[in-house]
Batch of 3 targets.
Target 1
Amino acid sequence: MGDPAGVGPEVCLDLLQDPEISELCIPVIFGDFSVLEACAKQTSKPLQVGQISGDEIAGSIEHGVHDLGLIHVNDLVPGTANAQTGRATYKYVTSAIDACLAGKVQAVVTCPANKEAMKEAGVPHPGHTEIFAEHTKTENFCMAFISDMISCSLVTVHVGYNEVPSLLTTDRIHEVISLTRQAHQKLLGKEPRLAVCGLNPHAGENGLFGNREEETIIVPAIEKARGEGADIIGPLPPDTAFTQSRRESVDAYICMYHDQALIPVKALAFDQAVNVTLGLPIVRTSVDHGTALDIAWQGKAGPNSLKAAVRLAARMI
């Protein structure tokens, strides 16, 4: 359900009412039933499902809500995330992960978390991706955003720009290339066409910009992947990597840092792109937007991103 003070509850209500989603899968909301009831009342959205106990999840033939009872609706102020909502967010997702690892559900789709709220709650991770990796004991993983229009995987994620160069290694870039290649082989049923972005303007301009990261770190990773059979190009100048003509010949990009990937993804496929954690032993997808506290519980949030995340999770299963 994501942070209960954000838009997660209302987009979950929309998801539960979509007949196309019901034909595709059986969605079970991990959250608080009382929160969904209150959100339904405030937004005038229907909530025509029942509660599902932990023992009933695996055998359920109807969608519903697994009520975890983590936050009382009287203690919740819509649009205001705090330590209580952050604690609930964390427990929602870890409970869902445990259910997936136990085979009770086949995939986990996350609504948005509020990073500040989770930090206030003492959660030692900056976001959902890191929670999934820690809880599933996964060492080799990466964040990716997948859509029909553009797909990008990230070598580094939630770090400051000054930290990025020191975190880039040939092994890490090769790892992200390999994870991206494997995921898209399954999704496309063929060898994907991959493109790797450079770190510096103009991909370093032959050493003119930066500290030759392209030549010493990125190129060796590309060559190693190419030697393993990957159909791959790069390092490309980031400012021209995402033009329409280039996108038409690329299935997925490998980007060096957060905004190098997220700016083109959100500009081109804001409500279509799906956040995916590659390398996990379970399927995990997510919406590609935040908690939107300024419009939470007002019936304004669109469910398209959540529905796209559910559809992709079903494909990946």
Note: The first helix runs from residue 8 to 16.
Target 2
Amino acid sequence: MISHEKLEAFICQYPVYQYAFFKPEEIAFSYRVRWICEQECQRFGTTWACPPAVGTVDECKKRCLQYKECFLFSTIAEVSDVINFEETLKTRRAHEEITEAIEQFIREQGSACMALSTESCDICPECAYPNGPCRFPEKMHPCVESHGILVCELAEKFHMEFTLSPNEILWFGILFIA
């Protein structure tokens, strides 16, 4: 498994705001998070990165618990107002690029990993779900919440900021490391 020191040295080249290492067993998986996906997210049932395609909360939990360690990190994006959903979503790509770079680095060090990140995948203009397989399963990062994980609880547990100001959005990612 990759050492903390090696990963910390690598992330110094990116604008990672805060981070924490912990065991997957420390995550509280919740069906209420999935309920929010089902009731309020317009991406529910439309992409391989979201429920129900990612599996049940129990299946997601089982998959996550197969890993030895988690690396939770956040990045900051500036916007005119965090309530402006369209503008906020446009800042997500930079965070996804950092997630991809960290994931690739971990794999290059010989550790298997699984990345969960922001919202739902937007690699393809139109997702193949449910009529065909994911075109880029190695690049697709399911949403953290799709797995029943409440990011605000993790942030609080590991003394990380969850909100900053009306003009700053915090994006979170979790890498599960074997």
Note: The two ends are 6 Å apart (CA to CA).
Target 3
Amino acid sequence: MQNIFVFGGGAWGMALSHAFSQKNKVFVLSRRNLSLQKYNINTDNKNHKTNIPMQLDYKDFLTCYNNSSRPLCIIAIASAFLREFIQNANFLESIKKNMNILVASKGIEQGSGAFVNEILEQYFTKNRLCYLAGPSFAKEVMANLPCALVIHSNNEELSKQYSNCFPDFIKTYIQNDVIGAEIAGAYKNVIAIAGGICDGLKLGNNAKASLLSRGLVEMARFGAFFGAKQETFLGLSGSGDLFLTSNSTMSRNYRVGFGLANNKSLKQILEELREVAEGVYSAKSIVEIAKKHNLYTPIANEVQAILDGGAVSIGLKNLLTKK
């Protein structure tokens, strides 16, 4: 049984804690006080016993980590707070270079425009980092519903090690397009906001299909500039995650767009969500990067204009009608 340490007690961090606890001993590190008994969800197999994740205090982490055989770590912290967490995590200093990490965070850092992998590689050993991508709502993972995910890394052996720890209801694929996964994971949240706006304005199925297909092209074009592989955007990491996130009220980014289309303020929407909607931060970063490199990003531009207070109906219709 593998010891796995999950950093982050949000919805996705807890969903991954539940998933990995099917086969492993999971320790969760979070500033929140977590009620972990509820994450031991009964299965149809009465002989199957899930290990309940255990919350671990930061001061006790090193002892538990050092007493573990080949421990694995998972980071599931919102990208907006990722660098702050790492810089303040003094308890990691002695083991940083030797930690194996699966990164489940998605987004682009505001200000610097750094992708998640660029942030992580400043503090940890590049060859010990893997990145998780693909369509996956936390609520469905918590319910043991099947899904397929992709582990991207330049270290195939480490990817396989993580893959073996996943439960049977999650199928994993191993690929090595880290930058493609990072861009797809961040960009799809921005398109999801546009998808929510489209549905909120009741523009119809034709408009929605046009929007998402053009969004996929926009994502792939942006990624190609940074050397991402086109097939990444056509697979689970790209189109799979995009279609999921842009079409369901389980998506926080979709709900942002839907709320804006129904005349709610961005502040009100984010207060109601009580979780981070990454697309709100990534949109601005994408627009700034696009301006710097003269990239064509019409959907991201319109989404950012709306987030800045622009007229919702005018912004989206500009994309879907002739001018």
Note: The chain has 15 helices and eight strands.
